[in-house]
Amino acid sequence: MKVQEFPSFFRAIHGYDPFPWQTRLLKTVMQNDWPGTISLPTASGKTAILDVLVFALACQADRPHNERSVPRRMALVVDRRIVVDDAYARACKIRDAINNAKGGILR
Fold this sequence. Notes:
- The protein is mostly helical.
- 48% of the residues lie in helices and 0% in strands.
- The protein is built from 4 helices and no strands.
- Helix 2 (20-31) crosses helix 3 (49-59).
């Protein structure tokens, strides 16, 4: 998988394109590392960092474990229960879309 395919991946799961900052985050993650924090306003799509992580992991899936730069775990720190529930629901949506894929970028 290539970074340029991220919008297709995102669209296949959610039905719409990622925000430009989400695509830029993926490029940053793949070229450098994760930023120390991600601080954005409410409703700017922060839980999509889950999509970025899953896609980044897929981009490196063909590498031996010791050559991967993307972490396999992520901690989302939020101060509102509803955000935790939304992040969990989003993670389940990503999981289900990949597990149920019959073809295309999600397969």
